[in-house]
Amino acid sequence: MGSMFRSEEVCLVQLFLQSGSAYNCVSELGELGLVEFRDLNPNVNAFQRKFVGEVRRCEELEKTFTFLEQEINRSLSPRMQCPLPPPCPTPLAPQPRELITVEEECERLTRELKEVSRNRDSLRTQLTQLCQYQGVLTRTHSLTASQAPPPVRESQGLFDNRQDIHLSFVAGVVHPWKVPSFERLLWRACRGYIIVDFREMEDRLEHPDTGEMVQWTVFLISYWGDQIGQKVKKICDCFRTQTFAYPETTAEREEILQGLQGRIEDIKTVLFQTESFLQQLLNRAVAVLPQWKVRVQKCKAVQMVLNLCSPSVTDKCLIAEAWCPVSKLPELQSALREGGRKSGGGVDSFYNRLPCSSPPPTLFPINSFTAGFQNIVDAYGVAGYREVNPAVYTIITFPFLFAVMFGDVGHGLLMTLAALWMVLEENDPKLKKNDNEIWRMMFGGRYLILLMGLFSIYTGAVYNECFSRGLSTFNSAWHVGPMFEANKWNASVIAGNKYLSMDPVVPGVFTTPYPFGIDPIWGLSNNKLTFLNSYKMKMSVIIGVIHMTFGVCLSFFNYWHFGKISSVFFVLIPELFFMVSLFGYLVFMVVFKWIAYTPAQSAHTPSVLIHFIDMFLFTDNPDNPKLFGGQEEDRRQLLAEEGSINTVQEVVEGGASEEEVFDVADKFMHQAIHTIEVEFQNKFYSGSGYKLSPFSFSALINASAAI
């Protein structure tokens, strides 16, 4: 709890890594996630560093892995396409010589996969074209069966020359979306000297470009003359239709259909064998790809860390600097020793602690419960090194302040049940690995939502609201009978008034305060919103002032820890005095009014809001009764203090010389404004720190899996 209350001690260490064991030492540190490395080569270009060649090799392998993963997803249905899950347990970082084996196997698998995929795509294209050709001949057979093959003769010219004019055909398939515009352009370009017929194919075939299944439309165009034929062919090319040679006789058509049927069967057989072999390659890729990806990611991360190191004078070791928690120094030494043992070196790597001039990073231990609250606090600024951790108190204050605004038993119960389900099923892989951004945000804050729901149930019970309706848990403390018994209400009063007011002065009308929460009788009153808004506003003010004052008091622990005793007297105490004098006085008036005035005196109670405004304006309102005796004397004292502050300010300004003087009033006002702004956010810490980001393989793999 001590480290959670205040950030852990972090020190700067200098690592001396032997050249032969540097890779293994950094790999061991990555497995443990202990240290955050610093860049000792800030002025060196990224392309001029020592291990840039190894980094590029890893990047090329990652590009190849991306291609393999795309091929795997292409073989799956769209709803099943997802990134491959990382292996469990994750393999260790490979040795440099092992990376060569991974490269060779990956290159061989990629080459085979590309070749087989290319053959498969070619076979699919051929099969689609043959099926289209078969569909064209089948669907247009009835259109040309009755047409005679002999040529039609027509008389031309004055010399009665006779020429043979043959009826020609253009047949093919077109996408159904293009049929209307295709037909319209044919008629306009050929001026109606053609015969066009469209029919849909019986089976759906694959589109060669997009891979989607399309029910193609077969067309048959009959025309006379070469010029019209050229126009028709150009229009077909413009619409990217697939045209086929069309036989003139029935015998030729039957012969072509028989040949097409045989070729289709042969291609289907070859395509089935190709698909089977491709599936074997993909299964092999699925088995090894997750392992390869993790190993190459680790190797690349190690090489990038080695690029942050600087060589020694003798070039026999690498020197690195890193931030490390003091409590983890023994583990650091063990990791260096283990890396040297794996490398078989005779000299172990070691570390030295260095003094640091810059502030160390902040490290707070987190778990699945505190992670959501810590992220909320860090969004407003990371606490400085060794400052008090606000997230510990945010675990209670944040969900409770939310419940003050949200309070409803019904809605809070629904929120609690949803969060409780996420908490109980938090180890379900389907929930943890869901890549939906909204879901990941909700699942990460499941404990936060659970507490918000529980507190909302409590505050909803205080407000007596369940789905915005009141609950009659206990009997009401207000009674109508005494109003008739005291002759305050009668038939004439009821007939002459739209609204009736219950007088708590009449004995028996108001008996005792409601046992818990708001009396449900207020749900029937005309001034329900006025009463509830006033009640909730005053409760929010009281809780908010307590919250802000608590934040001011917590700054004492920061001042005391860092030895800033002067800040205790000149910052903390003035802030606390300022807070209590203004808002604390407001809370005092609210509570005093609740205690001092009974329901029988409700008609003559003073307004706290008017009193608070008059205190700032230094005015007196005779229509508003005094809350307690001595208020006028308090105001006079405040006026006297204000006059003395103004006098000091005038003296300082009048005695101004060429030198810059210390303006007490200006500093006081600046500190007062700073107090209001800062404590409005309850930010009692500096917020100028930065988090420790240790070099960790697990964080690297989780981040890549989330992309």
Can you walk me through this structure?
The chain is an alpha+beta fold. It folds into four domains: 2-110 and 277-354, no CATH class; 126-149 and 164-268, Alpha-Beta Plaits, CATH 3.30.70; 365-477 and 512-524, no CATH class; 533-691, no CATH class. 56% of the residues lie in helices and 10% in strands. The chain is built from 23 helices and 13 strands. Strands 1, 2, 11, 12 and 13 form a five-stranded antiparallel sheet that branches. The chain has a four-stranded antiparallel sheet with strand order 6-9-5-10, sandwiched between helices. The radius of gyration is 42 Å and the shape is flat. Essential component of the vacuolar proton pump (V-ATPase), a multimeric enzyme that catalyzes the translocation of protons across the membranes. Required for assembly and activity of the V-ATPase. The chain crosses the membrane at residues 400-424, 445-463, 539-557, 569-596. GO terms for molecular function: ATPase binding; proton-transporting ATPase activity, rotational mechanism.
